Amino acid sequence: MMEFIKVNDYQAMSERACSIMIETINRIKNPVLGLATGSTPEGLYQKIIEKFNEGKVSFQDVTTFNLDEYVGLDREDVNSYYRYMKEKLFNHVDIKLERVHLPNGAAADLEAECQRYEKQIRQAGKIDLQILGMGINGHIGFNEPGTPFSSRTHVVELEASTREANSRFFPTLDDVPTQALTMGIATIMESKEILLLVSGEQKAEAIARLTDGDISEDFPASILRNHPNVTVIVDEGAMVLAK
Ligand SMILES: N[C@@H]1[C@@H](O)[C@H](O)[C@@H](COP(=O)(O)O)O[C@@H]1O
């Protein structure tokens, strides 16, 4: 079941997502959150920090697993997703860093690292709420088009369009890593609840495919239509092409 919540703009999307995340944290004992990076969830994390400062939420008992990480970047590299998470969220709330998990993109044995990460997620129990963004080509995490729906955490070669889209965070396009580690599509689909955030006209085509296209490995996000509990918060910009 995919439920759509249509909102006016990015701000409203972030606020709505913040309420859902806080409700989940406050409802569940020892909640496990799946977190995402990219521009899309930045507003959500800002709102969460505001609510934390108002005493409305605590991360004391929260465990987190991020979707993905670039290969070849040290954990503290300015462009690593670990660093992103610390700067955008973890440094500003009372989360215990030992409960924070991201794949290690600097691991010597990447295959072993994928298996370790997958096992760690399993041992934590299921992810209660997975936050997702969506790439312009329908990628979720870093699962590019063509990734099997049965995939678990794995190493991916990033598409040229994905590297291009993310090059805005790097000095030059050449500095964007060519590989990443990502939770697989099957890993993501095991989350109890998924919250997909989509904002802006550059995502309009992707939203149209998500709502009207086939469920196909050519468009990874389409599999979410088979998940029992997905909420899509989408703003007007991203809805311009949807029927
Ligand atoms: N790996 C991330 C994804 O997790 C993210 O959801 C997506 C969209 O990014 P943005 O939110 O910046 O549009 O692409 C990135 O490459």
Automatic annotation (TrEMBL):
Pathway: Amino-sugar metabolism; N-acetylneuraminate degradation; D-fructose 6-phosphate from N-acetylneuraminate: step 5/5. PROSITE patterns: GLC_GALNAC_ISOMERASE. Signal peptide: none annotated. One of its GO terms (biological process) is carbohydrate metabolic process. It catalyses: alpha-D-glucosamine 6-phosphate + H2O = beta-D-fructose 6-phosphate + NH4(+). GO terms for molecular function: glucosamine-6-phosphate deaminase activity; identical protein binding. This is Glucosamine-6-phosphate deaminase. It comes from Robertmurraya siralis. The gene is nagB_1.
